[in-house]
Amino acid sequence: MIGLIFGETNFPKEILKKIRRIKRRYLIIDLTKNKTFKKDKNFNSVSIGQIGKIINILKINKCKNVLFAGKVVKPNISKLKLDLKGVYYIARIIKASKIGDAAILKEVINIFKKEGINTLNSLKFTPELSLLKGIHTRIKPNREDKKDIRKAITTLRRLNNYSFSQGAVVKNSKVLSIEGNSGTQNMLKKIKKKQKILKGVLVKLPKKKQDLRIDLPAIGLKTLMLCKKVGLKGIVLKNKKNICLDKKQLINFANKNKMFIEAI
């Protein structure tokens, strides 16, 4: 039995398809706003503050392994409806929240570990959703693109160890934007296109001190379409440390629009 702790995005849906296909026993802890998985017979509706309820559901079902997938909107801690165990652990979560998102996730994993529950890598059942090292398109980054890539990597590495930023956009060696807690797509929507020629890159890497079992950088077709809309030429990810949804459509779109996708 595996506990699937699901948030927003299509990534959880892909995992669920695979879990059903291999006939693995599972239960779902649904943390989505609109209860996306309510039609599944193994669905459990839980709010983020009900840590005790989540742990009880897992233990009653003899579930010793959990897998986190999907985005969960960071809650306003002062407005959380906590159960008793939530009250017990909230001080640790508040302390972690002052450091950054990666620290919160790490603390949640530690809480589960203390309760005898192991956290699996989010790609354990769907490794095919991660891009391997190499250039996956016909177009390759040129010398200027490589300079932009290096600049973006340096920029991300200089951020706070537990920063929520996984992405940076660089064009002509100039940093145009760094991802905020509203995510990659909102970051891209704020960038104004200034030229018709595609130039510049979006680089998405794991946070420096994040636990690589959860919250890996993810891209989908919509992200790539936004990159094209704002005039960027390519996307760069970390080898095996990424989630690439709609992989075939992504590569086809990139080839058609003379863009590149690379895992480094």
Based on the model shown, name its key terms.
six-stranded mixed sheet; 34% helix; 13 strands; 264 residues; five-stranded parallel sheet; alpha/beta
What would you say this structure looks like, in words?
The structure is a single chain. The chain is of the alpha/beta class. Helices cover 34% and strands 19% of the residues. The chain has eight helices and 13 strands. It has a six-stranded mixed beta sheet with strand order 6-13-11-9-7-8, with helices on both faces. The longest helix has 15 residues, at 143-157. The protein is globular. It starts with a strand and ends with a strand.
| Coarse shape | globular
Rg result: 19 Å
What is the strand tally? 13
Element order: H for helix, E for strand: EHEEHEHHEEHEEHEEHEEHE
Count of DSSP-assigned helices: 8
Low-pLDDT runs: none
Brief synopsis:
The chain has 264 residues and is α/β, with parallel strands linked by helices.
SSE layout:
Layout (H helix, E strand, L loop, with lengths): L1 E5 L4 H11 L4 E5 L12 E3 L5 H10 L4 E5 L14 H14 L3 H14 L3 E3 L13 E2 L7 H15 L9 E5 L2 E5 L5 H6 L11 E4 L13 E2 L1 H9 L4 E4 L5 E2 L2 H10 L3 E4 L1
